[in-house]
Amino acid sequence: MRVHLVKRGNKFQFCCRVPVDVLPYFPRPLIRKTLPAPDEKGAKLLATVLEYKTQQLFLTLRSAMLPANVRQHLVAVYMNSMLSALEAQATGQEFTGTPEDVTGASVIFDHYAAAGLDWFRLNKSINKHSPAEFAENRKAISHDIAQSYTRILADTGEGVSAFLMPELAKTLKKRIKIKLEPEDCQQLSLLLTRQDVLLNRVEEQILDGNWDELEHQRERVNRLLTTSFYDLKTVINSYMDYYINSKPNVKPGTKDDMAVECRTLLDIFGSIDINEFNTMAAVTKLKRTLLKYPKNKVQRYGDKSIHAIIKHERGYEIIGVKTANEYLKRAKAIIDYAGKEKLIQSANVYKGELFRVEVAEEEQRPAYDKRDIEQLVDALCTQPLWHYGEPKPERFWLILIALLHGLRLGNITSLKKSDIQQTDKGTWVFQLRTGKTKATVRPVPISDILLLLGFTDWVEELGREKLFQDTSSSASAWYNRDEKHHAGFEARHVTKDKGKCLYSLRHSFAGSVFNLTQDFKVTADMMGHSTGKAVTARYIKNLLAEKLKEITDKLQVEGLDLDRLEQRAQELFFTT
């Protein structure tokens, strides 16, 4: 976090320039505060606290500000009501109001415009002037009002439409969940008063027989009314509510990720117009920012703006391309939602804009060969499976499951006793409930080798629900390298090939399955891969566990010494 600290004489001061967008809230463009600290170290500590509080204040002010596009929409609705009333007055027609807009402001402004027409009719009935005299009188009144409002704006900086604000604030809060702060009311009143000046000048020209300015203003207002007033924050809040209520079975972690991604998009763009968010310029800005986005931003920088981080911080670790793509996917989902809600009319520009992802490093790992498997079996049977902490003999099963079933490490470490089940036909299976893809969630028939070694007996006698004490991270660290980056179990006892790791067992399994079946579809199912086609997906899902069991039992794993493994299993789990 950047600390704004300066020294004046023998005193330290906290200095921070006020951002332009919140400048109207401050009497001066610079915040200064003398720090009661005797040395620079103490001053930095106090300045850090003030920096955090100041940034929080800026965030609060920004969240309380009426979005510019909503403000623009309200001005357009006001002008629409007043111009329609002017036209009705000039043509001698009845003013019936304007179409109600989603904010409800049109009803308030129509009543105000109608009241003005009532005053006009009353004034005309009282003063018995000829049409020409009345027109001249109206011109003079319009001219005087325009001049008067202009002086008020210049001298006091206050609007004359403040009386409309309480009812407008109540309507906006009820209809579109936007709260008008006092500052918002003051600013909006100023804008409406400026429109009143313009409207009185338009009326002057109409009374002179010139309708050009009225037509010009009508075109401008119609153009503004066809533009969505919805800001990104409003749409995101609506999208989040839709997401949570339409996907009740989504995991809490997935919902948290969604919320983080939405907050990040708001941090990057601010509450811009939703149409502006759906432009190629916005796509480019998002991609440019994501390529510099820090890893673990909140933990490292707190609420500091991403733009401030990119501008002032150096040497931080950035997020990966896959993570960056999640934000692009979320942006696309938000625009899809906005399209369904008819909040935008244009096509979704985020479609097809993901970063190209290279093949993951683990996907390029070479498979274990016969020599590696022999070394692995020897190590499992002769070497300690833990060095400190609680005993972890179950790592024996963990490695064998990876070798004989090719399961991902995360699937193995998340297994529970209740996931070891028997089908109606007596086939023992791992019931995988979560995974990297939908295809991962499936029953996996347990190899006869594991059954012969006593795996199900061990599960039955286990005194805890979770089969493995390790997480996927701790198991990977033990096998591949420890937290100090020292050689792990593999490098010490199996192979020195740095290209190989625990994931290599999955590649070995895949090769064995394909060599046996020569069938990509069956191999994909055994691996828990999605083939991406609906017909294939149905075929895969309909494969019975018993059929897959036949394939599992036919697999030949070269280098496997069952006698030694059985002896080791007895030693670890069944010897009292």
Q: What is the gist of this entry?
A:
With 576 residues, the chain is mainly alpha-helical.
Architecture overview:
With 576 residues, this protein is mainly alpha-helical. The protein has four domains: 97 residues, no CATH class; 68 residues; 127 residues, no CATH class; 205 residues, hpI Integrase, Chain A, CATH 1.10.443. 59% of the residues lie in helices and 5% in strands. It is built from 26 helices and six strands. The chain has a three-stranded antiparallel β-sheet, covered by helices on one side. A three-stranded antiparallel β-sheet has the order 4-5-6. Strand 1 and strand 2 form a beta hairpin. Helix 2 runs antiparallel to helix 7 and helix 4 packs antiparallel against helix 6. The two termini are 58 Å apart. The relative contact order is 0.06. About 2% of the residues have low confidence.
SSE arrangement:
Blueprint: E1 5-8, E2 11-17, E3 30-35, H1 40-64, H2 68-91, H3 105-126, H4 131-156, H5 165-176, H6 182-207, H7 212-225, H8 232-246, H9 252-269, H10 274-277, H11 280-290, H12 297-301, H13 306-312, H14 321-340, H15 370-382, H16 395-405, H17 409-413, E4 420-422, E5 428-431, E6 443-445, H18 448-453, H19 455-461, H20 472-480, H21 489-493, H22 504-517, H23 520-527, H24 534-542, H25 545-554, H26 562-574
